[in-house]
Amino acid sequence: MTANIDSNHIPNSFTQIGITMKYTFLDFLRSRRFLILLAITLLIAGLLTGIVAWRRPESFLSSDLAFYASWWGMSVTFVIVLSGIFFGGDAISGEFQNKTGYFGIPNPIRRSSIYIGKWLAALVASTVILAIFAGITVGNGIYYGFTVPYQFGESLLFAWFYLIAVLGFTFFFSSLFKSSSISILMTIILFLFVFNLIQVLVANFVNMEPWFILTYGAQIIGNVLTVPYPAHEVTTHVRQLSITTYNVTIPEGLVIIAVYFAVTAILGLVLFERKEFT
Amino acid sequence: MTTPSIEAVHLSKKYGSFLALSDLNLKIEGTKCVGFLGPNGAGKTTTLKIFTDLIRSSSGQALINGINVHTHKRQALTSVASLIETPEIYPSLTPREALTMICEIRGVQKDERNNRIEAAVKEVHMEEWIDKRVGKFSKGMKQRISIASALLSDPSILLLDEPTTGLDPRGMSEVRDIVKSLKGKQRLIFMSSHILSEVSEVCDEVAMIDHGKLVVYDTISNVTSRFSGGENVVEVGLQRQVDPSIVSKRISNLPGVVSAEQKDGKNINIRFSGGLDVQERLLSDLVHMNIGVVSFKPSSSELEDVYLKLIKDTL
Fold it and tell me: Is residue B80 classed as helix, strand or coil in its secondary structure?
């Protein structure tokens, strides 16, 4: 038998992205993390269902929009951030720490194809979780006799955009660190504490619009369910203290989300291209 | 048909202030098995990682079939399969799924995939685990699946980094057999190892590296004869006990023989001077002596002696 140098026709990079996505998604679907995230999502939805059924709060049940704003607008960003942490937190760092990279990288495939394939798999897995949460939300709304307002469709779309940006960000962090636990921890701290803290501090004490914070841009998800759309800048005077609150506009929010995604996706990709399996 | 080749051109790699590879120049061409030897930290794994895009060189080029791995990775690695360290596989996948992924990435035709996967898995004796999830596997089992993945695409070049690491003695022997069978299939195999007897048994040539620099690259017999004063040692295995006087009087006096030493009743080490012609005649003479010759192979301890001499010399 002679050496078979060119017998296999290597698929193009787009096909290889699809292959990576398919098997990473399969791994996600069967993994414990998917089940845990699903359980958390169902727990959040179950708690909301229970609270609304038991307490019948006016803020939830006064109108279609009030229901969706209170139910969906208040909780979906948390579900999205959790999805980002679960599927993106160690997506790249795990390739180094768990040594799965040694199985895939030495093949005739670009690193960028692996990165994008894994990112798409995380997006699909997170979208499944988001769809389940949206389905439960709509189911409850219908149960209480509410129609589905078109603003919910917009909010769902914005939530999905936000998910894209969150995954871009978590993948970037995952590329930054070789340790999975550090990359996951940093993502949790940033999204659940630091971003929100900076947003409040900058707006209230510096009187500056926090346009550079991703979670600020994500406010469009909840704000679009408020009619009329909240004023961009609201100043409240309490005695001699004036507190300014900023509400992101829809174009502004979309730009923030898009810029965060573009910058972190490019940085994450560049880092992964350069990172070494030492 | 291209002759498979790998070439390091002024290859250097720095980790901070530590120089892991220092201007390495090495060209290996043709179908053969080359052992890559050196102490821990000598630069063996670093070299193999550069050739497989796991790390980048600080300077110089890594060429496979004349194609630069870092600028044209997809083309360069098309004909290469590798096993570097002990790769992990996504734990939720089965070997069949993980190997199908590699087949798809490498463009193995759909109608060939199943046959290739089953043949590769059979070769590493993992048939009964083919549809079990990898997460439950031991390190040795994962290593076998990784070896199977290297066999899938019918590569012309194999880069193996201590392929028997993590395997039990049976597994080590099986891997050696796989490598030997691949040699018979006209492959270029470049294999790092710490086990000199393994290299002696499997490889045709040897490249020794120390402190990131190439110390020697040649055939095993040339290396051993060059660094042992032009003398070679063969280990002769006998079927039955031989009288010590036959060793001291008859074998020691055969043409080209410098000395003959009976290690035990059934094994003799013969030191001779000369090349392959002398070696061939020696074997013929021994067979004609009707002493029950059942094996005749270059001594692994000889390679060890040369290794220790060369590596020591560079310290």
Answer: strand
**Residue-range definition of the domain harbouring residue A88:** 13-189+261-274
Q: What is the ipTM of this complex?
A: 0.86
Q: How far, in Å, are A112, B180, B235 from residue B172 at the CA level?
A: 35, 12, 22
pLDDT digits (tens, 9 = 90+) for B129-161: 999 999 888 888 888 899 899 988 888 999 999
Ranges of residues in chain B whose predicted pLDDT is under 50: none
Q: What pLDDT shows up at residue A24?
A: 94
DSSP B94: -
Domain assignment of residue A236, yes or no? no
Architecture of the B227-314 domain: 2-Layer Sandwich (3.30)
**Is residue A163 domain-resident?**
yes
Q: What is the CATH number of domain B5-219?
A: 3.40.50.300
Are A9 and B185 a contacting pair at CB < 8 A?
A: no
Residue for token pair 């294999």? B191
Establish, for the pair of chains A and B, how many residue pairs have beta carbons separated by less than 8 Å. 133
Residues A109, B56: C-beta atoms closer than 8 Å: no
Q: Which residues of chain B does A274 touch, with a Cβ-Cβ cutoff of 8 Å? A: 56
Chain B partners within 8 Å of A276 (Cβ) = 49, 54-56
> For residues A88 and A171, is the Cβ–Cβ distance under 8 A?
yes
State the total domains in chain A: 1
B82 in contact with A, Cβ within 8 Å:
yes
- Chain A contact for B181 (CB, 8 A cutoff): no
Whole-angstrom distance, CA of residue B267 vs CA of residue B260: 11
Burial string for B149-165 (b: 16+ CB within 10 Å, else e) reads bbbbbbbbbbbbbbbbb
Q: B186–A276: do the CB atoms touch at under 8 Å?
A: no
A29: which chain B residues are within 8 Å (Cβ-Cβ)? 92
pLDDT, tens digit, 9 for 90 and up, residues A110-160: 999 999 999 999 999 999 999 999 999 999 999 988 999 999 999 999 999
Q: Which of B89, B93, B96, B105 to mutate to test the interface with A (most CBs of A within 10 A)?
A: B105
Higher pLDDT, A261 or A244: A261
B146 touching chain A per CB within 8 A = yes
Where along chain B do its domains lie?
5-219, 227-314
